[in-house]
């Protein structure tokens, strides 16, 4: 979990600098009216004013230097805190696995990690600035009391009204800032979803409808923005009215005290400057707005951090053939039973084809076998060790996964095959085994071709996905990972899998009868339950089994 205080404190290296400069600025702000007042009295007296003018110039120079340092420290603090928070969010999202991101749309997650993290990083500097802004009015109250108690009384009454305006503004703007950020996230989620399916949208001729769907939230965003500006405008107008009242009250009382001979002209000048400081509290609406946005940003970041990451054990896998065991495994999501009390003991080193109609639970079973999601009840073991007890490194070294639509990561095609860049020889071996080398070698820069610029068909992407999974030492889980391949290439890769010289266990989700026929065993699923497990030839006599392949 993450809190506003934790984010604010993370800038601890810069916050003292910001705080010290804020104090210096406050001290200069408070000292300058008194020094200028003394200068006025000295000018009236006709003597000693040079010394006070030099002190005033020195204070002004010190204030300018403090402002420059404060601007640099504030920017550096926000930058470092943003980087820390983004790193933590990205690490948490990645380590959370598919289950950790299931409750968030992709675009919304991107908004939380990018824009909202920047808003949250303002917490420390904005908080220090808000606290430091209290010093000048408090100091003004004390110094006015020193000059004349009646001046302090007039000042205090006006400042209370300003504080009331600020309190109302802070209370109203917090909820609106959160609503605005949430709407931004929803728009980003819809846009991300549409960009993913842009070819389908274009082909279906639904571009205008998609535009309306994405931009349909703009009125809501507009309403939240208008409410924010109305609150800001109302508070600004109130402060604009109350602020001058403070100045008028102090000047009126000061004028009476000057006529009565209780204060000097210089003291009246100083009092007027202190009254301006009190009236300037109304300008804190900007700082309070930053605090509200920071609070909303922290809350949206905290919702991501609150998702429990996938916990891994510390065990390594003993030597073994890759025996896969399902012990009472059930998976329930949103009230739907995806797998129902699956009990299996699959021998190691063989090819198992997983077949079944759409919605049978094939992909869920594959995900559970690879520990891309955990079962609701029961457990899965690899060579006698529960997957949840295996360390992350040992698990990902032993188990490789390839999917129907692989997401390729890395700067180059070679990195997409071997993200860790362990060995060019291993990369080449994996590419040759999965017949990816055939097209990679024809690319302009071969394995060093930019992944973003490499022209690839769906089948070629699948071959790269297979190559990436090929280095697994114990278990290969292929979820419809050859569906986009042409028949000849699919036959070649199937032969490579079934004749795997590494003797790994191959769990292959497929819709092709030829792939099932080449497997050692076929696992037939329907409605999350195991219907049978036997060789394809034995099951082919069953009309319901044949119906699975259409």
UniProtKB/TrEMBL annotation:
Its GO CC terms? plasma membrane
Q: Which SMART domains match?
A: AAA
Tree of life domain: Bacteria
The portions of this protein that span the membrane are 12-32, 52-79, 126-147, 153-170, 239-260
Which Gene3D superfamilies does the UniProt record give? ABC transporter type 1, transmembrane domain, P-loop containing nucleotide triphosphate hydrolases
Q: Membrane topology for this entry?
A: Multi-pass membrane protein
Query: Which compartments is it annotated to reside in?
Result: Cell membrane
What keywords appear on the UniProt entry? ATP-binding, Membrane, Nucleotide-binding, Transmembrane, Transmembrane helix
- Which PROSITE patterns does this entry report, sorted A to Z? ABC_TM1F, ABC_TRANSPORTER_1, ABC_TRANSPORTER_2
Query: A Pfam family name for this chain?
Result: ABC_tran
- Domain ABC transporter residue range list: 324-550
The answer to whether keyword Metal-binding applies is no
Q: Does the keyword ATP-binding apply?
A: yes
Q: What is the protein name for this chain?
A: ABC transporter ATP-binding protein
Q: Name one GO molecular function term.
A: ATP hydrolysis activity
Just give the chief location class: membrane
Signal peptide range: none
Q: Which residues form the ABC transmembrane type-1 domain?
A: 22-293
């Amino acid at each position: 979990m993450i809190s506003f205080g934790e984010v604010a404190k993370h800038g601890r290296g810069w916050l003292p600098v910001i705080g010290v400069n804020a104090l210096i600025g406050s001290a200069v702000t408070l000292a300058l009216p008194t020094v200028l007042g003394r200068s006025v009295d000295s000018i009236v007296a006709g003597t000693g004013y040079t010394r006070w003018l030099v002190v005033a110039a020195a204070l002004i120079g010190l204030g300018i230097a403090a402002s420059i340092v404060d601007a640099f420290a504030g920017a550096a603090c926000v930058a470092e805190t943003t980087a820390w928070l983004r790193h933590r969010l990205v690490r948490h999202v990645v380590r959370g696995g598919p289950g950790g991101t299931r409750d968030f749309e992709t675009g919304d997650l991107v908004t939380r990690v990018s824009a909202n993290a920047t808003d949250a990083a303002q917490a420390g500097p904005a908080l220090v600035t808000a606290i430091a802004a209290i010093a000048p009015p408090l100091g003004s109250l004390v110094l006015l009391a020193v000059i004349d108690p009646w001046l302090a009384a007039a000042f205090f009454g006006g400042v209370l009204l300003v504080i009331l305006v600020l309190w109302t503004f802070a209370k109203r703007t917090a909820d609106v800032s959160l609503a605005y950020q949430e709407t931004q996230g929803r728009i980003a989620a819809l846009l991300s979803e549409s960009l993913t399916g842009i070819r389908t949208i274009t082909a279906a001729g639904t571009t205008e409808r998609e535009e309306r769907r994405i931009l349909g939230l703009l009125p809501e965003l507009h309403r939240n923005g208008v409410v924010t500006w109305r609150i800001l405008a109302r508070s600004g107008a109130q402060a604009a009215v109350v602020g001058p009242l403070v100045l008028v009250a102090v000047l009126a009382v000061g004028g009476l005290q000057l006529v009565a001979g209780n204060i000097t002209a210089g003291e009246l000048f100083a009092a007027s400057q202190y009254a301006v400081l009190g009236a300037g509290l109304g300008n804190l609406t900007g700082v309070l707005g930053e605090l509200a946005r920071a609070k909303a940003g922290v809350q949206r970041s905290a919702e991501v951090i609150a998702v429990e990451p996938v916990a891994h054990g510390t065990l390594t896998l003993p030597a073994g053939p890759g025996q896969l065991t399902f012990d009472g495994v059930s998976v329930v999501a949103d009230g739907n039973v995806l797998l129902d009390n699956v009990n299996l003991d699959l021998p190691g080193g063989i090819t198992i084809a997983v077949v079944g109609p759409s919605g049978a639970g094939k992909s869920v079973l594959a995900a559970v076998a690879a520990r891309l999601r955990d079962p609701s009840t029961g457990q899965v073991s690899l060579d006698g060790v529960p997957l949840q007890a295996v360390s992350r490194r040992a698990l990902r070294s032993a188990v490789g996964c390839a999917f129907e639509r692989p997401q390729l990561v890395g700067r180059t095609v070679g990195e997409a095959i071997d993200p860790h860049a362990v060995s060019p020889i291993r990369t080449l071996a994996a590419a040759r085994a999965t017949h990816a080398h055939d097209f990679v070698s024809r690319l302009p820069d071969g394995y060093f071709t930019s992944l973003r610029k490499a022209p690839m068909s769906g089948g070629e992407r699948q071959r790269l996905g297979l190559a990436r999974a090929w280095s697994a030492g114990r278990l290969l889980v292929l979820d419809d990972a050859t569906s986009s391949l042409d028949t000849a290439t699919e036959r070649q890769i199937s032969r490579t899998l079934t004749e795997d010289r590494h003797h790994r266990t191959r769990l292959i989700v497929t819709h092709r009868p030829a792939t099932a026929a080449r497997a050692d065993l076929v696992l037939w699923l329907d409605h999350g339950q195991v219907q049978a497990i036997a060789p394809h030839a034995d099951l082919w006599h069953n009309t319901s089994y044949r119906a699975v392949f259409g």
